[in-house]
Predict the 3D structure of the following.
Amino acid sequence: MIQDYFESYLKKARYEMIDEGSRFYAEIRELRGVWAIGQTLEDCRQNLISSLEGWFIFRLRKNLPVPNFRLPKTKALVKTRVREYA
């Protein structure tokens, strides 16, 4: 579920070369503050993933909304487990 959330936003990431082509910059515009820089495109992507994970954890810890993310309802999970074992 969380992995799907990350992947959906990583597909929206925008990459560009900066510093006369010596580094890469990436951002996810829909998620304010999620950006990264790297020496190679792969470094930049890995740094962007780390940035996204840190942003996500920060939002959860501060009880801030996480756009387009919904946890399954606890009641539904409990009922499903009971049905499986009944």
Summary: The mean pLDDT is 89. The longest helix spans residues 41-61.
